[in-house]
Design goal:
155 residues, alpha+beta, Double Stranded RNA Binding Domain, three-stranded antiparallel sheet, 3 helices, elongated, mitochondrion, Mito_Transl_Release_Factor, Prokaryotic-type class I peptide chain release factors domain-containing protein, Pep_chain_release_fac_I_sf
């Protein structure tokens, strides 16, 4: 006679935990989402398909005078299937602007396809949650200090 038994199944798509006891039968199935992380905080965005991207180099503008106005170092990327456009003119180097533009396009596509589950939205939610927790801790600490001062008669 088996008194208790436990079975755990791990798959790429789902995680299933099954436990059986004498009087209890419990099945927990949870969806596992796989995120690509480098280290602890770096997220790897999905790779871009070069056939789906149209790249143009246009003349830059803004502060910098002749050095920026004469050279074609402003990169404009257009994702053909979605129609999303990214412009990048952060540096004077064309190669650096190309890398930055591709990174910005990956972020934009992640937000376009995943919406509220995109990495940027998740990161903002985590940051606001940490900020709120810090506020609560500070408020509790100040209340404790105020109570201590009242109890000890310190003004």
């Amino acid at each position: 006679m088996i008194r208790s038994c436990s079975l755990k199944i791990l798959n790429d798509a789902c995680s299933c935990g099954f436990s059986f006891s004498n009087k209890l039968l419990q099945i927990n199935v949870t969806q596992v989402t796989r995120l690509n992380y480098l280290g602890e905080k770096k997220f790897i965005y999905p790779s871009l398909v070069e056939n789906e991207i149209e790249e143009m180099h246009v003349r830059g503008g803004g502060p910098g005078g002749q050095a920026t106005n004469k050279t074609n170092n402003n990169v404009v990327l257009r994702h053909i299937p979605t129609g999303l456009v990214v412009k990048c003119h952060q540096t004077r180097s064309l190669e650096e602007n190309r890398k930055i533009a591709r990174y910005l396009m990956q972020k934009k596509l992640d937000f376009h396809f995943n919406g509220p589950f995109s990495q940027e939205v998740i990161q903002k939610a985590e940051d606001s949650k940490l900020k709120q927790q810090k506020k609560i801790k500070t408020k509790e600490r100040l209340e404790k200090l105020k109570e201590f001062k009242e109890r000890e008669g310190i003004t």
